Amino acid sequence: MVSMQVIHDKITAPRQNPRVSRPRLLGMLGEGLNSCTSTIVTGRAGAGKTMLAKDFTRGCGRRAAWYTVEASDGELPIFFHYLVESVGRQRPGFGRGILSHLASSSGFEDIASLAEAFLYELQECRGEPLLLVVDDLHLIYDAVWVVPFFRRLLPLLPPEAHMLLIGRSLPPTPVWRMRSKQTLCLVEEDALAFNAQEAADLFASYGLAARDAHAALEQTQGRAAALDALARRMSWEEVGGHAAGRLHGIV
Amino acid sequence: MARRNRSDSTPEPALTGPTREDARKRPTFFLRTKLLPPRPASVLLSRPRLTERLQANLSHPVTLVTAPAGSGKTTLVADFVRAHARRFVWYQLDRGDADPLVFLEYLTHGVGQAVPGFGEVTLSYLRQSADEVARLPARAVDVLLNEVLQEVSQQLVVVLDDYHHLGRETAVHAVLDRLISYLPDVMHVIVVSRDVPPLALSRLRSQDSLAIIDRQELLFTDEETRELFRQVFDLELTPEQLTEYRERTQGWITALQLVRQFAQRETLTPAAGAADLKEVLRRSEHDIFDYFAEEVFADETEDVRRFLLRISLLDRIELDVCARLYPESNSRHVLPELVRRNVFMTVASDSRGEEYRLHPLFRSFLQRRLSQESGPGEVAAEHARYAVCYLERGEWEQAARHLIATGNFDQAAAVVAERGGHWIAAGALASLVSLIEVLPAEALRAHPRALFYRGEVARLREELDSARLLYRRAAALLREQNDREGEAETLRSLATVERRYGDLETALAYLDRAVELAEEDSVVRAKCSGTRGLCLMAKGEWAAAEREFRAALQSAEDHGDEHYARLMSHNLGLPALLRGDFEESLRWLRRTLQYRGSAPPIPQEAGVHLNMARCHLYRGEFAECESHLDRSLELSQLFNLSVVQGEVFETYGNLHRELRELARAANFYTRAARIYKEAGLDFARRELPEEQAMLSAQEGDLDAARSALDRLVEARAALQNEAALKSAMLARAHVMLAQGEHAAARAELGPALAYFREHNYHYYEAQASIALASCAMAEGREGACLEHLRRAVELAVRYDYEYWLRREVEQNPQLFSFEQAHKLLPADLRRRLSSVQSRPPRVREPLPPSSQPASDLTVNMLGPVEIYRDPSHPLAPDAWTSKRARDVLCFVASRQHRRASKDTLVDTFWRDDDPESIEKKFHPTISYVRKALNSNQLLRQNFLLYKDGDYLLNPDLSYSSDVEEFDRLVVEAAAALRGGQTDRCHEAYEEAVSLYRGEFMQGTHDEWVEEQRAYYREQYLRMLEKLAAAAQEAGEWERSLTLAQQILRDDPFREEVHCRIMRAQAALGNRVAVKEQYETLRSLLQKELGVEPAQETQRVYRESLK
Predict the structure, then answer these.
(1) Closest to B966 in 3D by CA, of B1031, B1015, B900
(2) Which of B1019, B1030, B1011, B1031 is nearest to B995 (CA)?
(3) CA of B216: how far to CAs of B66, B194, B894, in Å?
(4) B540 touching A, CB under 8 A?
(5) C-beta atoms of A74 and B827 within 8 A
(6) pTM to 2 decimal places
(7) Among A129-138, B55-64, B765-774, which stretch is predicted with the lowest mean pLDDT?
(8) What is the spatial distance between Cα A139 and Cα A90, in angstroms, rounded to a whole number?
(9) Chain A CB contacts of B520 below 8 Å
(10) φ/ψ (deg, to 5) at B156
(11) Hey, of B547, B555, B830, which one would you mutate to test binding to chain A, going by the most A CBs within 10 A of its CB?
């Protein structure tokens, strides 16, 4: 028997907000929101994907449905159930009909039809424009249904429901076709890396100097979590202006 | 590196209604007054012959005082501890103490009252692990003993009064047996009991560790009887009267006490007394008692008599209960007055309250009398009144007992059914069972939850068959009554039993039914999820198990049940670790610790820290890994979790291997292996053989690694454990690759990879993929190589195996050298690869072979004293609280068999002290030794044991001592000399001489040191002389000169050595030096002794100048 108790944490956006906003990346996402049906953000652990998405949900002007995938969501009924629940939180009544029935049935013979049913419900159960964030999708990339499901779903999303997928690598579903048609916005690890200005902003938020930020950027190669951890540590340890001298041996 | 079987002691959650928080408060079951000694009697005859016996036995672990009721046991022991023991614990037992948890909790509280700060760890363990204590009481004893070793440094006497109340069938006897077996020397236990308790006494007796004071010894001697009459009645007994007394009372103290009271009342005159006393003594023991009881009783006023009769029904007589039940009796005044007048009543009290106790024989007299006077109806009515009172006070156990006494079984069963969970949470299993067992079948049928609790007790005691039957009956009855929640809870428990039997399908079926019955969002549902998760884990269905744990966690958090939330977080960490998602695992394991806040630790935390250490190790976070290992080691020692300790050592080994500190790794593996062996574990089921084989491979011994893994693969195939087999195959494939056997490695890796992928062992899969890429590369199959690399990199990115990937890239740069492979890597790793490739190929420096593990303790005494356990972790600079403690250790270490009796130690170090000051100093000094040797050390060990009156260095550990090595070399040299092996003899001399850093125990001037100092100095000089002579014979003049000068530094008066120097200097052509040497000797002798050099010396001088 599949347990269908919904874990609320999984369909709630993380409480934490980023220390500094990154207009460069928010701009990319905003552009994608307007011109594409979906967005994929990829990068290794600590690249700053989730924080960026969280920041984006605050200022994108849409209601945001959030779903953090876990490794145990590898079965389609469970994934689908959570997906529907997360949308249902933003659009009351969503999925109460045929979808809830589909979600609770254990076998899916036609994965593509399930994606279509979801799209149909989005279309029928109207409401404010929506941003659907699916975080940590990489944990279930190996599941066999992932490719057919998303291949069907992504290109057909209505304009008022934009999907933002987050994973540590690109999903196995072929994305080139969508990219070539410019219906998919892709933000990869290289873009996620902090640039000098962003690093300076981050360090300034900790009361640290821009030259410290510069040195730290070199060491961390712009990786968000490492940069932030370093800034935090330096702001604790720092009593004078010797941060740069101490960098050696910290990272 | 290790990857498979984790510390998977998935805790089974607590089952019953109340949370652990309830258990912590436990108001119903803890009575402070049970830890109070009886107040001294107003008139007391001291009995030196017995107190001396008790005093003399304090150096042994146990004294047993056993005799029938009224023999004066308690009075004797109470008098003794008050007068002689500086610190003592008095624990008044009753039948409610027959549960290990209850017993240990009182005991711990008792010790805590005597030793401030004691008990934090033990009490916390007992409170949070009631079910574990029921199953493994010995572990709780170990926790207590560890804390005693740690905290108690002054002698402490523990009195267990009225031990017979526990009965024959209780696990407490085993608890006490274990406690006594490992009792630290600072503790002494006095067991006071009417019968000989079923303890393992014969072993103690054979070890001379037990003293028994029995009825025979407690009886009054003629002299004591005479003294009693003299002191108390001012009456000198005639020899005839004395004989009469001896024959009639046989020295029975109560009879004599009765006589005394009678005499006091009658203001007995010497003349009248003799006749009356004779009459008194015609009666036998019980008759005498009854007679006097009646006499005493008759003397009281009507009100007091009625009051006494009624309170005889109470197990414990508390002032506020009496005041409430008998407001008219003025009990606050009457009770102390009865005690004052010695009306067979004693009182235990401290500043906060009092509890009164009737003499047991007097109490049975009163009960008999009540029943005769009032009839069963009134007695029952009285019990009913008590029951109501206790129900209102929330004292369920007392209430239930009185309800049963009234025959109101139905309400008693209702109380048990409603409150049984509290009993269990408090560990009062035996008293719960004793109540349920007297309840008739129809009462239990009406209240089947009582049956359920009986089942819970059976399950906690590991009586699974019986638990299963009880649960089934309870479930059927609950169904009849339509108690859905009760039935659900019972079915959940039934499922846990089936899971333990390994029948997972039946367990899951019960859980399905339980979930149907239980209310949504109920505690039972959450617990069903937890149990279902464990079943699914056992079936290898991790994802499903994780979902269940997740649901249970959410529910526990909603209900504010932190303990359960902690267990579920812990359980959630395990599947993630098995999958190889270390970051995720760390997230859950950290949460397990976060719930705890500042509360004391629980045993499961040792496993949590161990698993966190493993995660950090796989992620290359070595400092974090080490700090979690340290913590895990500390906890596993605290709770005596030997297998976890073994796993901690194994992981330390892995850590050092990863850091390429191979000798240390080997050392830790050896320790782990020793522990697994002692625990009787099957090595093939552990990861250790793989780790050791990989260590051999790292040391360059591929053949040894290969043959160890061949054996392991074979053993694992026989175990039919696929995951373990595949991981051994993976390890073997690595060795095959290193041996250049690519085809064989490929054959091994193919099925392993498929298995890992199918079962989501991501970390394994990544490793197998890289290994297969290596095979393909070696065989020129570039496409296949790329495919495997792509998968390995993909997994590394998904699960953040950054450390691992970096290491692979650095170790096999050629694997990623072709363009497409290069492109797979993230940018920073590509840069790193370029820098690796631009370096000239690094020749790995040969690794030192793993040395034998160093000894556990080194004590060097030839020269300034050196004591250390691990040269890289010296003892804290202020480790030795006193120099005497250090010297005591050296003394024991330098003795034969590293053993010294307590008497010898006292005689050597405290000869001039008086006994009281010795008692004050001795145990703290021993405690300082133990603490010093554990200062600044990760692993706590008890090096100094106490056994059969001797202190000895723990024979389970290994030692290194320069003195022992020196002695060994002396013997070896002598043997070599006898066998004509002069070279070997001289080698031994040289080794011995090099050990001599200075005089024995330099800086210490105690008497015991002198003899040994002289001996070693003599030996040292003798060997130097022999070596110097040999050098001279061989014509090695320089060397002979050095050796001779070395001797003179220690003993400048040796003329023959001066001669040797003169000869050597002459041989080297240094005539001036010859003269100088002779002059030095001559002026030394003249100045110090007023003599000239001997004739022989003068002759050598003259010859040397020729």
Answers:
(1) B1015
(2) B1019
(3) 10, 13, 45
(4) no
(5) no
(6) 0.74
(7) B55-64
(8) 25
(9) none
(10) -135, 130
(11) B547
